[in-house]
């Protein structure tokens, strides 16, 4: 939370909105990663993501050991003033440039936190 919001005890976006943005940024995010990013426990992050899935805003698949989340960009928002807006339209306003809504199944590079250096791969032909 920013210093200005911390002083007031509130955030502009709810935990659900923040979790949605984390998933939009990283479709392979773990619950621990989501919780850390939005400032809640892993258990709370799990409840929030389950709410997003139950509402039809996010789809969860588990092809291997890790969950992959897909944003359902065509879903409509639920509140009366926003029913004409699709989730994808909201995402384009809130998400940083380069955010994708489609997950990739390509292996992720090692984390920089692990102390390993990420080496660039061969150029695609």
Total number of beta strands: 2
CATH topology: Arc Repressor Mutant, subunit A
Radius of gyration: 16 Å
Mean pLDDT: 77
Overall outline: globular
**Second-tier CATH architecture:** Orthogonal Bundle
Which stretches are low in confidence, meaning pLDDT under 50 for 5 or more residues running? 101-125
Helix/strand-derived category reads: mainly alpha
What is the CA-CA span between the terminal residues?
Answer: 43 Å
Main β sheet profile: 2 strands, antiparallel
Give the neighbour order of strands across the main sheet: 1-2
Short structural description:
The protein has 125 residues and is mainly α. The chain is built from five helices and two strands. It has a single domain (3-99), classed as Arc Repressor Mutant, subunit A, CATH 1.10.10.10.
Q: Explain this structure to me?
A:
By secondary structure, the chain is mostly helical. The protein has a single domain (3-99), classed as Arc Repressor Mutant, subunit A (Orthogonal Bundle), CATH 1.10.10. The protein is 37% helix and 6% strand. It contains five helices and two strands, in the order ααααββα. Strands 1-2 form a two-stranded antiparallel sheet. A hairpin with a 6-residue loop joins strand 1 and strand 2. The protein starts with a helix and ends in a 31-residue tail after the last helix. Residues 101-125 have low confidence and may be disordered.
Main attributes of the structure:
5 helices; 125 residues; mainly alpha; disordered C terminus; globular
């Amino acid at each position: 939370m920013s210093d200005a919001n911390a002083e007031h005890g509130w955030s502009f976006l709810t935990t659900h909105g923040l979790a949605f943005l984390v998933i939009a940024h990283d479709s392979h995010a773990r619950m621990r990663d989501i919780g850390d990013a939005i400032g809640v426990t892993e258990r709370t992050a799990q409840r929030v993501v389950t709410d997003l899935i139950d509402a039809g805003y996010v789809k969860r698949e588990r092809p291997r050991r890790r969950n992959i989340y897909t944003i359902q960009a065509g879903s409509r928002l639920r509140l009366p003033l926003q029913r004409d807006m699709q989730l994808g339209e909201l995402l384009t306003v809130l998400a940083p440039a380069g955010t994708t809504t489609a997950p990739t199944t390509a292996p992720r590079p090692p984390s920089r936190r692990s102390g390993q250096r990420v080496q660039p791969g061969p150029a695609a032909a």
